[in-house]
Amino acid sequence: MNRRIIYLSLLGAVVALAVGSYFLAPAIRQHMHDIASSAASQSEQEKPDTPWVYGRESARFTIVEYADLECPYCKDYFPRLKAWIDTHPDANLQWHHLPLPMHEPMASYEARWAECAGIEGGNNAFWRAVGLIYSSTRSNGSGPANAPQLDELGDRQAAIDECASNHASVLQKVRAQTYQASLDGITATPTLIVKDKATGRSIKLQGAPDGDVLLSAIDWLSNPAQGSGSK
């Protein structure tokens, strides 16, 4: 009799454990998912050196734009270049920060703010931040009349502002890109480097080239008979 009672007690415990596990499993899975998501987010914040690319990642041609968020010429050119990318899926746009000395300290702060928006909201948020800054700034170092606000990241606004002011890796990224531009001999904005992934060739275009010039550059890069190497 005692053995039967012990057996039934053990059986009840096993059933209870199985039932409990069934109901707890979704919560455990959700908890593990939250941990993984948090780790991924932290990893992104620890590695803000990923280039921001607008357009198809697999596009053959990449247009690297060296730009200053306080540059009035960049402000005028950015929406036109972005619209051109939208209609030419064989090319994408990669951002390269180049805050100019005469526009400091606002230009570097805005560059960091866009970077931090990207860290918080991803690639699309970065490009929306660039467009928002250009649409609101008074340019030439004056900045916007009011602090920029991304509506879709409203609950992360304080984090973006804090990141722009104090995130060491973001500060280093903007400085590194500025220094790299000087090594590349680029001191004015906007400046474009058009790269052909298929041939490895590239060409530098200064100023704000229109669509016809961009197409001519792509044709030149695509045709090895027209020369070799960079131009």
Overview of the molecule:
The protein has 231 residues and is an alpha+beta fold. The chain folds into two domains: 1-44; 53-222, 3-Layer(aba) Sandwich (Glutaredoxin), CATH 3.40.30.10. The chain has helices at residues 2-46, 72-86, 106-121, 123-136, 157-166, 168-183, 211-222, and strands at 53-54, 61-67, 91-97, 191-196, 202-206. A five-stranded mixed sheet has the order 1-3-2-4-5. Helix 2 (72-86) links the parallel strand 2 and strand 3.
Described by its quaternary structure, the protein is single chain
Q: Which architecture of the largest domain does the CATH hierarchy give at level 2?
A: 3-Layer(aba) Sandwich
Order of the strands making up the biggest sheet: 1-3-2-4-5
The helix content, as a percent range, equals 55-70%
Strand percent estimate: 5-15%
CATH superfamily of the largest domain: Glutaredoxin
Rounded average pLDDT: 84
Number of DSSP strand runs: 5
How many separate domains?
2
Rg on CA atoms, Å: 26 Å
Low-pLDDT sequence parts: 1-46
What fold name stands as the CATH topology of the largest domain? Glutaredoxin
Assign an overall shape: globular
Number of distinct helices: 7
Distance between the termini: 94 Å
Per CATH, the class of the largest domain reads Alpha Beta
Briefly note the structural class of the backbone: alpha+beta
| Main pleated-sheet profile | 5 strands, mixed
H-E order: HEEHEHHHHEEH
